[in-house]
Amino acid sequence: MKPRLICSFAIPVVCFIVSNSLGAAEYFVNKQGSDASDGLGRDKAFLTIQKGLNSITSGDTLTIGPGEYLESATRTNLGESSKTTLIRAEINGTVILRGDIPAPAPRAVEGCKYIYAFNLTNKVQCVNEVDTLTMYSVMPSIEELEFVPGSYYFDEEKQTVYFSTSDWLPPARHRLTVSVINNSGLLLYHPTNVTVEGLAACGFNKDRQETQAGQLYGSRAGIGIDRGADNVIRHCTAFLNGTGIAIQSSKNCLVEHCVSYGNYTKFGSVSGNICNWNTPEEGGIIRHC
Fold first, then answer.
1. Within a 13 Å sphere around the CA of 129, how many CA atoms are in the beta-carbon half?
2. Distance CA 93, CA 243 (A)
3. Cβ atoms of 239 and 216 closer than 8 Å
């Protein structure tokens, strides 16, 4: 009878371990992928981070290959307390979500001393002078650009951006990008026990104040968690966003070993590099950043 007792005890234990391991999957995203694939392997990777976010469930891992991803990725109600869900760069620091694009070659505006212009079909959220970490101020008219360095005016009808540089020197002295996505980079609503590791985000901003209650108090974050619990952001980088890394109304969240700089907006009630907008009861830790 003893051997039978041992066998009947061992079989359920083995079955439990196998089913638990089969319950978690690893999905992949890379620049050679396709959103028509199933994502379950590097050779079957998705092309966009948003497709990867849409596909994972609690306990899964989303591994993102090196490259720049011009997109905003959001997800609601991801994860559960009993399983850690992981969103990670395959190699830390090589994955960057971008909300900006390089500015086209500018031309001098005839009759003006400091004003330059370029054409752009995208809706402009901000013009960034990357080498000086300057976000240009938006002006209501072209004429004011002659008196306010580091400013721009977007003529939507002509699809033309007019600007003056931060030091009034020719724009060839600088590197300019244009923020064109009016959203945050990676934004998770109501996540539970999710870890974000090794990602970078830049260029997410907006061009005006919102009167209604908006996400993350109206700012645009590089990486953000909104009303979640027990989440971690680790080894991430954010620069030239409205807010860099943001935790809002979330319980027991951790930001560690992150770098955030040059994040700022006039069009949000709060902005900064790493922000923890929580009550003392909700807690939250920022360390080694």
1. 21
2. 19
3. no
Q: Are 241 and 214 in contact (CB under 8 A)?
A: no
**Single pTM value for the model:** 0.88
Q: What is the dihedral of CA 16, 19, 23, 28, to 10 degrees?
A: 120
Nearest-angstrom CA–CA distance, 187 and 225: 6
Candidate from 78-87, 169-178, 225-234, 268-277 with smallest mean pLDDT: 268-277
Supply φ then ψ for residue 148, to 5 degrees. Answer: -125, 100
Residue 171, pLDDT > 50, answer yes
Task: Identify the band that residue 270 occupies on the pLDDT scale cut at 50, 70 and 90.
Answer: low
DSSP string over the chain: -HHHHHHHHHHHHHHHHHHHHHT--EEEE-TT--TTS--SSGGG-BS-HHHHHHH--TT-EEEE-SEEEES-EEEES--BTTB-EEEEESSTT-EEEESEEEPPPPEEPTT-SS-EEEE--SPPSEEEEGGGTEEPEE-SSSGGGGTSSSEEEEETTTTEEEEE-TTSS-GGGS-EEEE---S-SEEEES-BSEEEESEEEE----SS--SS--GGGG--EEEEEES-BS-EEES-EEESSSEEEEEES-BS-EEES-EEES---SSSS---SEEEE--TTT--EEE--
- Predicted confidence (pLDDT) at residue 31 exceeds the cutoff of 50: yes
Predicted confidence band at 210 (pLDDT cuts at 50, 70, 90)?
A: low
State the pLDDT at residue 265. Answer: 84
CA distance 74 to 185: 8
Structure tokens at 101: 């694009």
